[in-house]
Specification:
four-stranded mixed sheet, alpha/beta, 4 helices
């Protein structure tokens, strides 16, 4: 709503009051059945988790998808307010300080959420809503490579999961796709960016 304009929302809240409720009670799915999601490319979660959690509480985030999480040595990321749900993650080799990729979710412990599928390129979380169908969130990490054949394999995996769940609830797809699509201030479009647009439009 524009400044000074009062817009009524469910349960008689104005837009301003609703915003204050979300800021102060972001940890709850509370009075309204809304869901705040976000995605981070963390380049390693360890030693950053407290900053991430503080930011997510402030913004009212209930579920955060993390790419390049690098948590293979850290099993203490969950606490009484946050649950860490890892996807698939490679271990570092002799010449690698960190392996590429790695995905997972931070979810509030009072959110009814569970991992339903974990593949090579994406991990999927099912979130039960208070009303209506569940929300399926896919957190992706695609190869940091312009080889279209590798990206085609990643899209094949994602589309296979989407086909299985599309009739069960809402779908949110997010992550690091390592593709240039001429968006967010970057006007370049590369081969895998064109592939991404084509595959998304076909879903």
């Amino acid at each position: 709503a524009k400044r000074g304009k009062r817009v009524r929302r469910r349960k008689g809240k104005t837009a301003k009051e609703e915003g204050e409720t979300r800021e102060g009670q972001g940890e709850d799915q509370a009075e309204e059945d809304w869901l705040m999601l976000c995605h981070f490319n963390a380049r390693g979660v360890t030693n950053k988790e407290e900053v991430l959690k503080e930011w997510m509480v402030k913004k009212g985030v209930a579920c955060a998808g993390i790419a390049e999480c690098h948590t293979y040595r850290d099993h203490g990321l969950s606490d009484k307010e946050w649950q860490w749900e890892p996807g698939r993650e490679e271990r570092p080799g002799p010449q690698q300080h960190h392996p590429p990729g790695g995905t997972g979710f931070f979810t509030r412990t009072n959110l009814r959420a569970s991992i339903v599928e974990s593949g090579e390129f994406a991990v999927w979380c099912r979130i039960e809503m208070k009303t209506g169908p569940p929300v399926f969130v896919g957190e992706c990490y695609f190869p940091a490579d312009s080889d279209a054949s590798k990206h085609k394999r990643a899209w094949d995996e994602v589309e296979g999961t989407v086909e299985k769940i599309r009739k069960l609830g809402h779908i949110v797809l997010m992550g690091d796709f390592n593709a240039k699509m001429g968006m967010n201030g970057d006007h370049r479009v590369d081969t895998v960016g064109r592939l991404m647009r084509k595959r998304l439009n076909a879903m």
